[in-house]
Amino acid sequence: MKITDHIKKAKGKTLFSFEIIPPVKGKNIQELYDNIDPLMEFDPPFIDVTTSREEYVYIDRDGLLDKKLTRMRPGTVGICASIKHKYDVDTVPHVLCGGFTKEETEYLLVDCHYLGIDNVMALRGDAMREEKYFKPTQGGHSYAVDLVRQIQDLNCGNYLHDTVETDNCADFCIGVAGYPEKHLEAPSLKSDLKRLKEKVDAGADYVVTQMFFDNQKYFEFVDAAKAMGIDVPIIPGIKPIAVKRHLQLLPQVFRIDLPQDLVDAVDACATNKEVRQVGVEWCIQQSKELKDAGVPVLHYYSMGKSDNIRAIAEKVF
Ligand code: FAD
């Protein structure tokens, strides 16, 4: 079922959902299930599964370093299928521009369609680790909006190199990313919102936001998006702080601000166990306020660990 239909069906009730990361190549999928199991009690209508970009690894061959391109956490679509099958829940694979040609994307979408996956999240992806800026893959897309257009074309039976007469057209519901504190490369929040509007005009059905720790930023973002004519659901994505290092890491990687009260509370912690508790309590307060404001879904970035998300969901849902 489409995310937008889940939201309609909920008739104003805030839904619970979360995002997971595929295991590192070669690791057992059981650990993933062990972290999903405790969250199923909160009835998520959908679970997102991220896609990682390819990266270079250096292999020592008799003293000479061989540079190889690899994907450390493959298996997004397979994991989506296995979770859907095991838990009878909708899954949302993240589909990236970076690292994929348009043809590879088409085949991935065909696989998703055959597997009964109704939703996809269309993203550009970040720059590769050793690159400063995002470089489009040869034969791939430059921006998420181009990917949204490809998916919409496929929904109409227009494949890359042929138009197919079919009684079994895909009808993907498309999610895209939004940034309450603007995307790190965007010159201004307004220009970033214009780009978001382009994605919605191209056929995106809903938006999931980057994490934020100050709800006011989300509320202002939603108001600004509405004023610009963006009328699809904007799902807040949030995450509890878990370790002290997040104070530096999250602003550095995502260019987001942390409220001073949260910084002070984390700074005052002697151990990461205490930090985890502060993170959970902050996220509970954020969640309660967002729920009271009537957000359609509270979407949690679990980073593969469920204990803190469960502690939050127990107090909120
Ligand atoms: P875009 O919408 O293409 O925007 C990228 C930048 O380009 C923005 O600054 C925008 O303002 C600008 N822009 C857009 N269109 C144009 C244009 N036509 N001309 C000039 N500038 C333009 N990354 C992963 O690798 N894997 C994941 O699974 C993943 N999941 C995510 C889930 C969510 C909810 C979010 C918020 C992010 C996720 N990301 C993921 C990170 C995402 O890939 C990065 O933030 C990436 O840098 C931007 O992706 P985008 O889809 O927002 O890009």
From TrEMBL:
Family indicated by similarity: Belongs to the methylenetetrahydrofolate reductase family.
One function term, GO molecular function aspect: FAD binding
Record keyword Calcium present: no
Keywords, comma-separated and alphabetical: Amino-acid biosynthesis, FAD, Flavoprotein, Methionine biosynthesis, NAD, Oxidoreductase
Catalytic reaction list: (6S)-5-methyl-5,6,7,8-tetrahydrofolate + NAD(+) = (6R)-5,10-methylene-5,6,7,8-tetrahydrofolate + NADH + H(+)
Organism lineage string: Bacteria, Pseudomonadati, Bacteroidota, Flavobacteriia, Flavobacteriales
TM regions (residue ranges): none
Pfam families: MTHFR
BP GO annotations: methionine biosynthetic process; tetrahydrofolate interconversion
Top enzyme class: oxidoreductase
CDD domains for this protein: MTHFR
Cofactor: FAD
Protein name: Methylenetetrahydrofolate reductase
PANTHER family: METHYLENETETRAHYDROFOLATE REDUCTASE, METHYLENETETRAHYDROFOLATE REDUCTASE (NADPH)
One Gene Ontology cellular component: cytosol
Entry annotated with the keyword Coiled coil: no
Species, as recorded: Pseudozobellia thermophila
Biochemical pathway: Amino-acid biosynthesis; L-methionine biosynthesis via de novo pathway; One-carbon metabolism; tetrahydrofolate interconversion
Protein EC: 1.5.1.54
